[in-house]
Amino acid sequence: MTTPPESAVQSPIASKATRFARTRATTMSLVSPLSAEDCQVQSMPTASPVKWHLAHTTWFFETFVLGRDPAYRAFRPEFKDLFNSYYVSIGEAWSRPRRGLVTRPSLAEVMEYRAHVDAALEKHVALGGVDDEERALEMWTIELGLAHEEQHQELLLADVKHLLAQNPLFPAYAPALPSAFGAAPKPRWHSFAGGLVEIGHSGPGFAFDNETPRHKVHLEPFALASRPATNEDWLAFVEDKGYARPELWLSEGFEVVRTQGWRAPLYWIEREGRWHEFTLSGLRPLDPTAPVCHVSGFEADAFARWNYARLPTEAEWEHAAQSLPVRGRFADTRRLHPERAPAGDDGLVQMFGDVWEWTSSDYAPYPRFRPWAGDLAEYNGKFMCNQRVLRGGSCATPSGHVRASYRNFFALDTRWQFTGVRLARDAQ
Amino acid sequence: MTTPPESAVQSPIASKATRFARTRATTMSLVSPLSAEDCQVQSMPTASPVKWHLAHTTWFFETFVLGRDPAYRAFRPEFKDLFNSYYVSIGEAWSRPRRGLVTRPSLAEVMEYRAHVDAALEKHVALGGVDDEERALEMWTIELGLAHEEQHQELLLADVKHLLAQNPLFPAYAPALPSAFGAAPKPRWHSFAGGLVEIGHSGPGFAFDNETPRHKVHLEPFALASRPATNEDWLAFVEDKGYARPELWLSEGFEVVRTQGWRAPLYWIEREGRWHEFTLSGLRPLDPTAPVCHVSGFEADAFARWNYARLPTEAEWEHAAQSLPVRGRFADTRRLHPERAPAGDDGLVQMFGDVWEWTSSDYAPYPRFRPWAGDLAEYNGKFMCNQRVLRGGSCATPSGHVRASYRNFFALDTRWQFTGVRLARDAQ
Amino acid sequence: MTTPPESAVQSPIASKATRFARTRATTMSLVSPLSAEDCQVQSMPTASPVKWHLAHTTWFFETFVLGRDPAYRAFRPEFKDLFNSYYVSIGEAWSRPRRGLVTRPSLAEVMEYRAHVDAALEKHVALGGVDDEERALEMWTIELGLAHEEQHQELLLADVKHLLAQNPLFPAYAPALPSAFGAAPKPRWHSFAGGLVEIGHSGPGFAFDNETPRHKVHLEPFALASRPATNEDWLAFVEDKGYARPELWLSEGFEVVRTQGWRAPLYWIEREGRWHEFTLSGLRPLDPTAPVCHVSGFEADAFARWNYARLPTEAEWEHAAQSLPVRGRFADTRRLHPERAPAGDDGLVQMFGDVWEWTSSDYAPYPRFRPWAGDLAEYNGKFMCNQRVLRGGSCATPSGHVRASYRNFFALDTRWQFTGVRLARDAQ
Amino acid sequence: MTTPPESAVQSPIASKATRFARTRATTMSLVSPLSAEDCQVQSMPTASPVKWHLAHTTWFFETFVLGRDPAYRAFRPEFKDLFNSYYVSIGEAWSRPRRGLVTRPSLAEVMEYRAHVDAALEKHVALGGVDDEERALEMWTIELGLAHEEQHQELLLADVKHLLAQNPLFPAYAPALPSAFGAAPKPRWHSFAGGLVEIGHSGPGFAFDNETPRHKVHLEPFALASRPATNEDWLAFVEDKGYARPELWLSEGFEVVRTQGWRAPLYWIEREGRWHEFTLSGLRPLDPTAPVCHVSGFEADAFARWNYARLPTEAEWEHAAQSLPVRGRFADTRRLHPERAPAGDDGLVQMFGDVWEWTSSDYAPYPRFRPWAGDLAEYNGKFMCNQRVLRGGSCATPSGHVRASYRNFFALDTRWQFTGVRLARDAQ
Q1: pTM for this model (two decimals)
Q2: How many Å apart are CA A247 and CA B279, to the nearest integer?
Q3: Which one of B10, B371, C62, D317 is most buried, counting C-beta atoms within 10 A?
Q4: Chains C and D touch (3+ CB pairs under 8 A)
């Protein structure tokens, strides 16, 4: 078990207070277009109600920061189990698929809960001083709590989108998007020589335990596509009967296609012979130039095979991304939908933002991985099976949240996240 | 197919307007203790969100009354399918188990929908005149719409109770109930000679099609218990291991007991060795004197067998009830929970109100039954299989809604309605 | 609880021995076209392996007759639970859906088991004497055991048919049937005046407890079709899109149609635009003149509604059948498939044999019904819910097994039994 | 896509004929203790009937070898789909979970099918000559067919064991095993320096495509336990409540524990307070000294964590195994159950045979992996997701079948294979 990295200790207190306030306010702003009803409903067992996200991110600070302060009085003691997600060391979490049944506390009460915890936490931060280990750990835990809240900001958007997509009236969460589309740049291959490289996080700056330790990996020469595949690229796959040809698919993937009746990405909807797309701004004609989004890992894999290509490994992806600036279309653009690649850039584009990129790598511990100490050991490690790693962040990821070493992970059949695909291939 | 009974034609217009306003207002009053979140959630596939009840009862008037008026403009045309329950002749109803996913329209919009339809309907009623068949049919349909709304008032209460019972904090919908309990009168047997009797509705006054036609039935001599079984009676069954003795149960019933893990009525909760009961007023110690409530037909049947008795047939029940006044504890008492039988009454008590009484009769068409004409043929007839008849109304039934010939019906494993049991036996 | 009816006491011993030998031999002859593999497999949870039928019918005699004799030594004590069907008073029966997993004992061992029990039972029968109550009960129990074995003979045929129908090669159990078809007589209506009639078994002769007691029922005037509906009749229903019109169906029935994808009776198979039928003699072109077979109660009900008719109640059916001889095509014809109605008969034809006829009556206890005493109370009574009564026997029923008062029963969605439909309607 | 490796071309014809005859005879000998019933039943969807294994291995030779010979006449053309496992390029395989329903062809007919194909294949082999590419491919395909048949020999044993374990009488397939147990040697750690190593198959000798190509992997220093964990080791885990402590488990693994009610390895059975084990020789007291067997990957992972250790990666395992002779207890010992490690051996023992060893490696394509060409591309590649690699073979694996580079793979919740666990840990 590890102690928090030194880096966290050094972040200046003042900026932490600001960053805390800003992150919490961002969450509130995401909720502003939603009614109490919108915030209540859980549209499937793997999604959560918005109200739950609001409460759970608050619970996280209450439990792991304030809970260590004997002087702190819990807002309501019964929230300890009610808004626990999965920390068995903390207590018995309320059943996940039944989160949507809890209509009380109301949204308004949850907002009070947020305010209560915010006030208490701000006092803690204002105390200043990082002179002892206990205090350093607290500051690091707040940093973690902010990264955690950012993760839930993205989950919240994906869950809201899924909820509204269940509604036959296709309501909008955000202002309308443009409906005139230009042309996407042609993709090109960028080659990398491989060899014995290093990936994983090290050095200053916050990172999750699953990004560590930095370690050596041997890579054969490979190439990456300059941009993610677009809706137009995907349409060619659909029209070539890609969803009906088992030879393109992993066996388990084709079984899912068959039993779920998949014939296009999630949220593609055919209306009078033309494809539309449900976005957080409602239904609109499919933008052929935007990166394809809401495809599962199974679809990404089959699409790659159909292209006589493959998905990148996470090591290939990170090796290629390490030297790039972390710039791209994130949630702060407020478009909440992927868009056309910029023209005129010779290098790899859209590595960060727009869509999460499926890799071929199973989500597994890095060599010599150690989970965080104590209760937070449960944060990542216990999910390291039957999932695939995704990289780079999306249009729904908060700006500043991801980095080259960042590992997101979902099961291969997941489609409701903002997930796309960048092709890779072997090189000489 | 039948035309509406003459009776409906004769109900005075003025009282219809009043009754309409009062019934609609009652529904609104039932909703007043609930938040938008409470009104949104569907706690199981066979329950409906309160918001849906509010909209569907409105849809019923809009579709079957206003919809026949070419001058009427629908509030929102897309509600035609969205709030249809099961009328395939009207259109394709929105999937029942997915009602809770529709967060938009909001509760506020549904309230506007109610107001819009109320205003239009009041104008129709005020027009007066029952001078033609078309107009008479309209008046009858309004009467039906009110009876329909009353049915949904009770369903709404059962659904809210089920929803709140899913919440680990056991919130209350209604003010606290008393927690001091007296003693219930001892039950006695009342005998009936039987012979060729008549049951079913005839004559003036509204009735559902499933109560008709009045017809002859031959009954052997029988006896009914003077009052429904109480919680105390049921406790003896529980303590005699009634839930663990397959020989007491229908085979299918015991399979449900086993797979669902039933060991007491729904909403009985053991806390530190004592039985409590979840009520619409929250959790409280079990009242031993009140009629047992929230038992399935399977449990009622096993309990009767354990008592060396049986459930009454619906013909026996109706024959016994025909001569009694329709008086009892209905929803207008605002207790919303069954209570102890009155002392000092020599006859059958609590035949009406308190708890619906399971009969041994399958829900089947009466001889020469004809469903209503047109779209309303779907109201009752298509549900006549795999359900049992219940009689007498409950503490959640609107006062004035039931009568001796009234037939309620649910599957044998249903427990979330306000259902209890009155014993019967053969007599000489 | 009742003692066995006097009638059983009076059946002459000699004929009992003969009847026992003949019935047991008939079972063996039914198995002769089957391999050990055919006898092993359980094709669905509600079917049983043939080997199980062979063992269970033997177990019945061993348990209820020989088991009362202290001198009898069980063939293998572990069969007591292994071949118990559902008698909880006897012990814990082996899980029904897992019967097909028991490959040992082998078919050969089960045959030895049969021989062992046959020998012991023949000795018991040969003892003669019915002079005391104990002995009379034993003779009656043997009679019951034979009726029980006959029931399993029919179940065995239905289960074998279902098993072979799962095989993509469509193998045959019996010799080929003719494939030239004549014409079925036109159906006519036969009217009955109704009134206060009596149904149910009384008097000498074996009957199941569920056929008793004889009791009064009041019937309105009604009419029955002279013959069951034919495949040709049903084809008209199919071609009129009967399976796609929800207004013809019980709501629950149409849900089954939709989720199961029903579009014709079970075992109808379309090949190159023509309907075929899987029979125990393999696949052959559909015989338009034969009674339609392997339809569920839901289908029967919808078909009747499409005909502006209804299904008979069981009381109507029995009242009409009481005066008819119990003659018809039973399993002893060895055709094991229903056939065209005889021409030139003015009355009701095919009331017995060919196909079981669905009634509209739920399977319920008759007034004052008492199950048999002791362990055998479980024979019938505990299944009296969520099933419908069928009458008259089929081409797979042993000759001599049924009578006018005989009640068969299955759930409304059952199709693998030899079930058809005779229409009824109200009369003046 | 690749052509067959040159190695296959060089295997001498004579030995191929012998090896073919011997492998096919071994399969027959495995079936000899089984009845036709035993060979018919499919005890769960992921198991197959023995009869199916017999037919499918034959189908493999018929399809991929004889099917290329225009002169060959298929035994029965309808077997092409019936005994196809999962090759969509060949045709539509008969539904996997319904394999057990096919009682015809009988076992005897399948034996004829085997003889027919054996005779035809022996003729092909005898033709001699590997002088052209076509012929070389054929010889290689026969080699593959033999490796394929060996895989099914092990599956057959695991499936038979599972089937017999469903039988409440616990019948035996093989002669009794000893029931006196000595003591297992203490485990020690063996360290490896790691660095840039190579794994994967290359050079002469048959290997599956998934073992190729040989490639570089970077390993940190690590250590392996000298022997697999024993039942005694596992008992300590059980007694320390290992199955009730979620912190030891992958989250998904603990969910399986909870929903499946796991509390010990599959086939451990508690009788009167003592643990027994179901073996192919029937039920016997648990051998504390034998390697634990029939544990899932989830259990292996939790057990390792409880030991403050981890599972080896497949690269670690292969690196350690590369220098060892492929010796161990395989199926030719006829014990069909793992046994105590040999004493007095200083090195790694039982790396081959006894039990398959779970690794922490997801089953994924090696860098630059190419599936075999044509139809056989489906052999391995399409299963490369949501499975873990196992190494080393078991007591049910045919001798000669595995090698250091051999990759077996199953989902993490699989328990019916002969699977155990060897611990690993990081080293300096």
Answers
A1: 0.95
A2: 58
A3: D317
A4: yes
